[in-house]
Amino acid sequence: QVQLVESGGGVVQPGRSLRLSCAASGFTFSSFAMHWVRQAPGKGMEWVALIWSDGSKKYSADSVKGRFTISRDNSKNTLYMQMNNLRAEDTAVYYCARDINPDIPLYYVDYWGQGTLVTVAS
Amino acid sequence: QSALTQPPSASGSPGQSVTISCTGTSSDVGTYNYVSWYQHHPGKAPKLMIYEVIKRPSGVPDRFSGSKSGNTASLTVSGLQAEDEADYFCSSYATSDKVLFGGGTKLTVL
Question: How much is the pLDDT for B2?
Fold first, then answer.
């Protein structure tokens, strides 16, 4: 069965960096685009970024552009999110999620991880 | 781009039907049929309930249905059951390779 397990969350000071990982199993990771989605406390979901299956294309929300970088290592079945210059408003549970369609993303997801909490505070 | 608009809460008694709306713009819901709905029990992974406006993944009861009119998509849950109580949120593809989510609706089964 499809499993997505996020790690790397924690408490970090404003302006510092953090790298999230998402270990995938139960499917051919290299065939699917992957997303990061976050949910701030008491707020709705916010899409953060998408990376195509081969890593050739990446898209991100305006709120994180220039600070967050999505990447993947298909040999390790792992998705990453490098988060730099973190702000208080980045505090959220971060989910990795699989795009529903192999190869060409359709920009919605069918499987989600359980999430990892990132808290940005001094 | 702003998030899609959902009512914060909805409720119904067992056996009744309830409809949750998701309002966007002509740059997202109104133009693209890539609208999906998710059920989320806090602390658990969200579950895809509807995709491409009206399609149900295998295993999702046919009590759940989706529709769209103009810039507004809707999720209808018929024959409400206690286990349907959860948060529901919508998402849509938006122009320029973006994804928008709704703020979420807490469904209460009375």
Answer: 67
pLDDT at position B62 is 95
The answer to whether the Cβ–Cβ distance between B104 and A45 falls below 8 Å is yes
Residue A76 has pLDDT above 80, yes or no: yes
Q: Tokens in use for B23? A: 């309002």
Pick the residue from chain B with its C-alpha nearest to A2: B45
How does DSSP assign B2-44, residue by residue? PPBB--SEEEE-TT--EEEEEE--TTTTTT---EEEEEE-TTS
Spatial neighbors of A9 by CB under 8 A, at least 6 apart, are: A18, A20, A93, A94, A116, A117, A118, A119
Which chain A residues touch B57 with a CB distance below 8 Å? 110
Residue B22 has a pLDDT of 97
